[in-house]
Amino acid sequence: DGEGLGEGDCDGDSEGDLGGSGERDGDNDNLGQGSVPSLGRFYTARECARLMGFPERFVIPGQPSREHPEFEYYARFYHMIGNAVCPAVVKAVAERMLEAMRL
């Protein structure tokens, strides 16, 4: 339900559940017989960056625009963050390499 997210999240509304189709499920508490329960919601771009270890000061590059509508912008971002290596992992590997090279 968005708990724990600070003010200033720049990547849209993180409240509520999203069904498997990406549609908002406004009434998943009162499921009727034969109803399918909500599968939860998708992670926001900011939440994905947090999970990968990017600091809060990390600026999500670009902005949705006429040339790159919101869907295309976020599709590219999710692809980019999914291919990223956690900054803490890069730092740890680089430190060990520098130690090995005695720099």
TrEMBL record:
One of its GO terms (biological process) is methylation. Residues 1-16 have a biased composition (Acidic residues). Keywords: Methyltransferase, Transferase. InterPro entries: C5_MeTfrase (IPR001525), SAM-dependent_MTases_sf (IPR029063). It holds the Pfam family DNA_methylase. It comes from the Eukaryota. Coiled coil: none annotated. Residues 1-38 are annotated as: Disordered. One of its GO terms (molecular function) is methyltransferase activity. This is DNA (cytosine-5-)-methyltransferase.
